[in-house]
């Protein structure tokens, strides 16, 4: 089976790692794999070197950019269509909002069935109204051209069905897979990795470290964590905060933290390679995630597999792994007092942290193994190619644009 994967950018991110694990797993299983992506730009880092070293074909499409640019988008769609006509694959598998729309349109024009993975909703309340309406309309237009959808969380299926994009029977939930072993048992041992990491980061043995892994951008919600830290400044002096990642808000966050007198409570790692994340989580005591929009944030199962309890905003698929009283504490989005209370409770109770983390490890290790994900995706892909999982309809015609 020849599968062409299409994703907007190959930056350091959950959807991109998911896609690479899928490509690598299918390639290792004997499938022919071609990965097509746009250029990676900005401070998010890149997975392009890893992709090029994996042994399958990688094609960079310079016309494919993240922001809405109708003429460039049309050119990207036509370029991808020409590529498909030449490659003659059995299946197209699209990822992310922009590539998802353009890729399914091109696949329909080329007569190739398409699967689309919903890593996170392409339309959401935090977009400007024009972009939100455009993406929602585009998803409805692309829905009939999609043989089957993969959702990383049940919440994604619920949102897309409610928006009228496709009926529920054309969705299958497959958890976003990862290499779980470094989170379970690092080669050097958890205790040694924890001690070394805390020493390097400057944390004392008595500190309780709350780690947040996310790009430093507005929707990731680091500002709510800073507000909670300020509220807990006197109540929980042992709480320290590890911000893993980089982005445009770093300087502003550092100024805000300094103004609150919390500079000694926060450590910024900057951009780190994904293979360092397990060691950083082992050096921590809990994971906090205050994003306002996600599919199912990978750092939540990663933290749980590492045996750490999680505190998360109740956004999208977070509630499917952050189970209050069982694996962590789920709090309403933007509710800083509830966030502070959850952090203070866990900081004060090491036995509770141990119990919640152990239950999360027991529940979620196997469902989030990358081998589990690849096995499920390969079975679904074979069904779609054989016509057993729905047939895409429509021509893939792209709305005409002036000057094209």
TrEMBL record:
Domain of life of the native organism: Bacteria
Molecular function terms, GO-annotated? D-inositol-3-phosphate glycosyltransferase activity
Keyword list, A-Z? Glycosyltransferase, Transferase
Q: EC number(s) on record?
A: 2.4.1.250
User: What's its top-level EC category?
Assistant: transferase
What single Pfam family name could you report for this chain, choosing any that match? Answer: Glyco_trans_4_4
What is the designated name of this protein? Answer: D-inositol-3-phosphate glycosyltransferase
């Amino acid at each position: 089976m020849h599968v062409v994967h299409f994703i907007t950018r190959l930056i350091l991110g959950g959807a991109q790692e998911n896609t690479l694990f899928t490509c690598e797993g299918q390639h290792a299983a004997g499938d022919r794999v071609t990965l097509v992506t746009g250029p990676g730009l900005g401070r998010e880092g890149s997975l392009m070197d890893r992709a090029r070293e994996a042994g399958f074909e990688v094609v960079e499409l310079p016309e494919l950019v993240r922001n809405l640019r109708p003429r460039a988008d049309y050119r990207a769609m036509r370029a991808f269509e020409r590529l498909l006509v030449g490659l003659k694959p059995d299946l197209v598998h699209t990822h992310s909002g922009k590539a998802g729309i353009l890729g399914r349109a091109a696949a329909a024009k080329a007569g190739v069935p398409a699967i689309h993975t919903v890593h996170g909703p392409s339309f959401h309340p935090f977009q400007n109204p024009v972009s939100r309406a455009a993406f929602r309309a585009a998803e409805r237009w692309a829905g009939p051209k999609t043989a089957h959808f993969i959702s990383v969380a049940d919440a994604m299926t619920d949102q897309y069905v409610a928006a009228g994009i496709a009926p529920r029977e054309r969705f299958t939930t497959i958890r976003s897979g990862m290499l779980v072993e470094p989170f379970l048992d690092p080669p050097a041992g958890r205790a040694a990795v924890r001690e070394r990491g805390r020493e390097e980061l400057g944390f004392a043995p008595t500190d309780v470290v709350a780690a947040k892994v996310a790009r430093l951008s507005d929707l990731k919600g680091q500002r709510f964590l800073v507000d909670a830290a300020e509220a807990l400044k006197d109540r929980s002096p042992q709480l320290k905060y590890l911000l893993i990642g980089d982005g445009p808000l770093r300087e502003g966050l550092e100024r805000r933290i300094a103004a609150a007198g919390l500079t000694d409570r926060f450590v910024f790692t900057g951009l780190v390679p994904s293979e360092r994340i397990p060691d950083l989580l082992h050096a921590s005591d809990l994971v906090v995630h205050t994003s306002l929009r996600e599919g199912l944030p990978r750092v939540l199962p990663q933290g749980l597999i590492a045996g750490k309890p999680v505190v998360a905003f109740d956004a999208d698929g977070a509630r499917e792994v952050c189970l209050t009283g069982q694996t962590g504490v789920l709090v309403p989005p933007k509710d800083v007092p509830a966030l502070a209370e959850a952090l203070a409770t866990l900081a004060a109770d090491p036995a509770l942290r141990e119990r919640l983390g152990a239950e999360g490890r027991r529940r979620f290790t196997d469902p989030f193994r990358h081998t589990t994900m690849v096995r499920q995706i390969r079975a679904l892909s074979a069904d779609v190619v054989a016509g057993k999982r729905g047939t895409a309809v429509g021509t893939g015609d792209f709305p005409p644009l002036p000057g094209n």
